[in-house]
Every structure is written in C-alpha cells, then in structure tokens.
Amino acid sequence: MNHRLSLLGMLLLASCAAEAPRYYKGNLHTHTLWSDGNHFPEMVVDWYARHSYDFLALTDHNIVADHDKWIQNDQVVRRGGRNALADYRRRFGADWVDERQQDGKLEVRLRRLDEITPLFADLLLIPAEEITSSFDRKPIHINASNVTARIAPERGESVQDVIRKTMRAVAAHAAKHDRPILAHLNHPNFGWGVTADDIAQVTEERFFEVYNGHPSVNHKGDADRPGTERLWDIANTTRRRDLDAPLLYGLGTDDCHNYHNASGSTPGRGWVMVRAQECTARALLDAIERGDFYASSGVDLEDVTFDGDVLSVAITEREGAAYITEFIGTRVDGEPGEILARVDGPRPSYTLVGDELFVRATVTSSLTADNPVWQGQPRQAWVQPVAPRRRR
Ligand SMILES: [Zn+2]
Ligand SMILES: [Zn+2]
Questions:
Q1: What is the distance between the alpha carbons of residues 380 and 366, in angstroms, rounded to a whole number?
Q2: Closest-lying ligand to the alpha carbon of 28?
Q3: How many A from CA of 219 to the centre of ligand 2?
Q4: Structural domain range at position 322
C-alpha cells in the first residue's frame, strides 16, 4: 500500500513537473509577400525559427494565406528582394518553389499557411491577419491572431467607432468558430492615428502594442504628442478612474516588412514572452488574456509575481549589463503615469501603498539593442500593469 502510494506520489510529482509553466517567445506581427512584406512566407517563418522563437503570427494586411496567389518576380525585386527567389530556391529546393511564365513574366506562387505549417515542427504558426482600416486618413490597424479565415475591415464614423466595430467583428468570428482569438491594437502613434482617449474608451480593447519595432511608429512621441508608453498610462488612468474598465496590456512586436537589408522595418526588434504550460494557441492566448506575459526589446525576465501587495521582477542577468526598473503608476488623485520608484539591480520590487489605480514596470538595460531603431536604443522589458488587491 505504502509502495503504491509513493508510486502515485511520484507520478503526481512527475506530471506536475511536466506541466510547470515556462516562458515562450513569440512575435504576433510580421509581414510577407502576401501583402507588403518583401520575402516569401516560408523564408519569413524560417528567420524566426532560426532565431529561437516558439511561436509566430504572419499578419498580412486584410488577407489570410488560404488561397492561391501568384506574384511576379519583378515585383519581389522592386521591393528590395533582388536575391529573394534565389535564396528561397536554395533554402527549400527548386522542387518546392512553384514557378510559371505568365505573359512573358516569371511568377512564383505564394504558399498557403496549410502548406507552410508542416515545414516547421518546432515553431507554432498562429493563423492571423492585420485588419487594416482608417478613419479620416488616420490608420487603424488591429491584429487578430488565431483566426480561421479573413475578417473584413470595418468602416465607421470615428476612430473609436472603427476600433469598436473591428473588436466586435473579431469577437463574432471567435464565437462562431468556437476558438479564442487575440485582438490587439497596433502602433497607435503610426500616422498619429489613435489617441490615448480612443484606446481608453473602447473598453472591448484589452491589448495594444506598447512597443513596435517599425521605425515609423513614433514610439517616443513628439513635442506635442505622447509616446506609446505614456499613451498606455493615460489610457489606463481613464479606464480605472472613470470607466471601471479592465486594464490594457502591452505587447512587443516586430511589424517587419523588410528581410533583405539593414534599413526599414527589420526582424527581431520586439516580441512577447508568454508564460504558459504548453506552446499551443489556446494555452498562449489564455495566458495573454490573464496578463501572464511581458513585452521585450532585449531584456529577459525569469519571473514576474504579484501577490496583491508586492510587484516583483526577476531579471535574467546578461554579462556587462546593469538594470534600472521604473515602477510606474497613477495614484487615486495623482497625475497619470508617475514614476513611483526607481530600483537598481536584477531583483526589483515595489510594495503598493494602496492608493494606486495601477502599477506597472519598465526594465531598462545599460546595453543597447542588437538592432536599434534609434541611436542608443536600450534593451527594455515592459511588465503588465496590476491593481492593488484592496484600497487602503
Ligand atoms: Zn500596421
Ligand atoms: Zn503591420
């Protein structure tokens, strides 16, 4: 009996160990030749697979790779892919590459997602789309990850109306197909399209890009308009103070279009680390929904914990790096996005006083990013906001 019990105990321990959650690395925003990216989709996926990503969403504009599409090689070359076809043939073999002559022009068929997925055993491809719309020339781009088919862009009477209609279209698609779908608002400052108030007021929206590696997204704002981090704090202040709405969580993404040279929007600049029990779309999206993830441009975290009173971060130390963590939040009667504490070292924590509407953390390394967008861009990580367990 004892023997059987201990065996059972060992089995339980083993199964618990197998299910211990860990961080998975992924990028939920990147482009291919299916829209305005400049490489073949398999080559894009291959880049991420070779750089140790666990999951990836190809998010082309208003299109899902589920049908036949051919592209003229001239067009690939015009986008900067002079060697794209040769590289593609070399990597996947001439037999794999589907070519034809049409009206005297060389064309290549873009492979569908269902053809590409089996090529990559170690990388989860999540079917996705960048739902691309606008209002009054203001770009409104929303990524939907884990779709089964294209979701059409919406038109509306204001920026907020377009965002709300898009969120509802995504929710309807998720309900109809009985699957979780992550909708996240992209690059609010691109074309100065979406303001902090727009982000705050559409409370169906739960996720947005606090960091997008495209150089044209005005990450730092300008003299008159707030940068993306500040937008986050203003929006969350409105949500907690005026709307009793859920906090917004922040993602990091690449929004890569350019795989051939060093300029423009290149891969590997922004990503999310999601703590899940397994690398499946359902497990990852559940974890993101719970806020169990962080955004990164080059800082890794071992752990983030919040027990209702103390927000603690454990940073994975990199040789030669020093770290400063800013705990940022808004007090009940305070200004949005105050720096509540600035802590040196790899194990920063902040004990909530109780008058905070929310607190989040930004970790900044003394090392610059591998592929900086601006000169001297530091490696950073963005920890999701939390609200105190109780007001004191
Ligand atoms: Zn976009
Ligand atoms: Zn994009």
A1: 9
A2: 2
A3: 15
A4: 298-392
List, for residues 249-291, the tens digit of each pLDDT value. Answer: 999 999 999 999 878 999 999 999 999 999 999 999 999 999 9
- Residues β-bridged to residue 343: 325
Give distance in angstroms: CA of 264 to centre of ligand 2: 13
**Over pLDDT 70: what percentage of the chain?**
95
CA nearest neighbour of 186 among 203, 208, 165: 208
Say if 84 falls within a structural domain.
Answer: no
How many independent structural domains does the chain possess?
2
CA end-to-end span of the chain, whole Å?
Answer: 52
Give a yes or no: residue 309 inside a domain.
yes
CA distance 291 to 269: 21
Q: Over the stretch 38-59, which tens digit does the pLDDT of each residue have?
A: 999 999 999 999 999 999 999 9
* pLDDT greater than 90 at residue 76: yes
Based on the domain organization, do 202 and 319 belong to the same domain? no
List, for residues 208-221, the tens digit of each pLDDT value.
999 999 999 999 99
Q: What angle do CA 126, 179, 277 make, to 5 degrees?
A: 65
Q: Say if residue 276 is in the same domain as residue 318.
A: no
Query: In the chain, where does DSSP find H-type helix?
Result: 2-18, 41-50, 73-78, 84-92, 113-116, 159-177, 196-201, 228-238, 281-290
Q: Are residues 271 and 303 in the same domain?
A: no
CA of 186 to the centre of ligand 1 (A): 6
**Which pLDDT score, from 0 to 100, does residue 16 have?**
44
Q: Assign residue 370 the CATH number of its domain.
A: 2.60.40
β strands within the chain, DSSP E: 22-27, 55-56, 69-72, 99-102, 105-110, 124-125, 128-135, 138-145, 182-185, 207-212, 249-253, 271-276, 293-296, 301-306, 310-315, 323-331, 338-344, 349-351, 356-368, 378-386
The CATH code of the domain that includes 161 is: 3.20.20.140
Residue 141 alpha carbon to ligand 1 centre in Å? 5
CA of 32 to the centre of ligand 2 (A): 10
Ligand found nearest the CA of 132: 1
